[in-house]
Design a protein that fits this description.
heterodimer; A: mainly alpha; B: alpha/beta; Rossmann fold; Alpha-Beta Plaits; four-stranded antiparallel sheet; 10 helices
Chain lengths: ~260, ~300
Amino acid sequence: MHTFKGSWFTFEKFWTWYRRNWRSTAVSSFLTPVLFLLALGFGFGSQVQSTALIGGVSYLEYLAPALVVVTAIQGATFESTYPVLSQFMWQKSFIAMVATPITPAQVLYGQMMWVGSQLAVRSVVFVIIAVVLGAAAGPGILLSVVFATLAALAFSAPLVAYSATLEKPDGFTTIFRFVLMPMTLFTGAFFPVSQLPDWLVPLVWLTPSWHGIELARGTTFGTIGLLPALGHIAYLAALTAGGIALGVKFFNRRLAV
Amino acid sequence: MGRVENLVEAKALTKHFGTFEAVRGIDVEVRKGEAFGFLGPNGAGKSSTMRMISCVSGRTGGELKVLGMDPGTDGPRIRARLGVVPQLDNLDTELTVRQNLQIYGRYFGMSRQKCREKAAELLEFAQLSDRADHEVEPLSGGMKRRLTIARSLVNDPELLLLDEPTTGLDPQARHLLWDRLFRLKQDGVTLIITTHYMDEAEQLCDRLVVMDGGRIAAEGSPSELIGRYSTREVLELRFQPGAEKPDLERFAERVEVLPDRLLLYTQDGEHTLAKVHEHGVRPVQSLVRRSSLEDVFLRLTGRTLVD
């Protein structure tokens, strides 16, 4: 079977599930941006003085494009952990799939297409809500959807590969606490990275969220140059590709035994 | 004409997991239209063999041809013509019964229209039409099993692989399942079944191999195997736990000593029982029965099949 076709049929399974269960996910993709923007943008932001460091814009506008990115990465983290492990261990749907012409690699591609499309939809909803609430500084914020999805995939792909190696879900809690949480808080979404101690900054550069935030905020305010933008995109694409390559290896190891 | 077509041919087939040798060089041929069984206890290498035949797991050594092709290079093409019923159900439990069938059809590249038609037909076959649009999760074990079998038929497979198809089911659900499998056999589908239930093997299999410790201990039809490795009848004598068991070697062709009973292999069980009584032996309970594959297995391996 052609690779794309096989991956597409895998994707269709997720889509069938979504058609039955979209209501429950819709609530969270609607509520997350509303709550974040209200609490941090309007509430907390009302107490924050705009400075030259954040370009003299309101804190709400400063925050909005970055929030699209970090919430996409959070969503990607959940999509790439328990549901993936479940399809190996509890639901075993991946095992059912590879008994057909579908290959382990196609299962992975379908899974990644699913994560990507889910996060794209969530990001679109986020941006619409940001526009409605007056948190959008300009039309450039629309591009946040693309960069948030890309950053989410760049984190998701290695994480899906990692999930494929686990026999129990204990490792996930560590990732939520010690990777996701600090990455959400300290990679430039809520305050400029220049406020961090110097030794920490190179570590921030490694995170997909920092690159995603630089892109989303930079295009929203028109402050990013073409070359840096391409650099960020290349880094995120490389993380995604590397994660997928690892994923193919681990999916094969797990499913073809 | 006259040439028997083999759907599976294995020669010196082996499978290792690290240093563990799950399958240690087996030769197997499965002919078109037959129901072929792998009988053996847990850990005998049955499931590993099945996974190699179903082109999911690669072989470590030896030769394997399925539908005339090499699983190592033609996996997806072979799998397109196989049906697989795994040992553990792997249905999409959050989807409906019908959706499970339709989605599975899509994995084989069938059109949506074709998937809808096939699903309706298989719902009928699995006697699940009235549950078609219910979620899978709350179904009984027997229903889930029937759905799994129905799902494996979505691509009209030439070869159906069933790994422990009735393990964990109550007797009624088992008989219903066996009935469905008989129908498939009548329709000309070739079946390969692994089981550790001898009654299942006797009911379903035209031919089988007894596996133990990754090797094939014997091969033949159930009646051939019984004829070759056992006597016509068996006299079972049960004694008080812990009681010393009498030496009755001279009354039977062969005696097996189990923890709680003696098995006397003989052509005429009632006659042997009378002689044992004459000898003054008073078991708590006695039973005369025909030999089964269980006895074949005991003879071949010195162990019982199901503990």
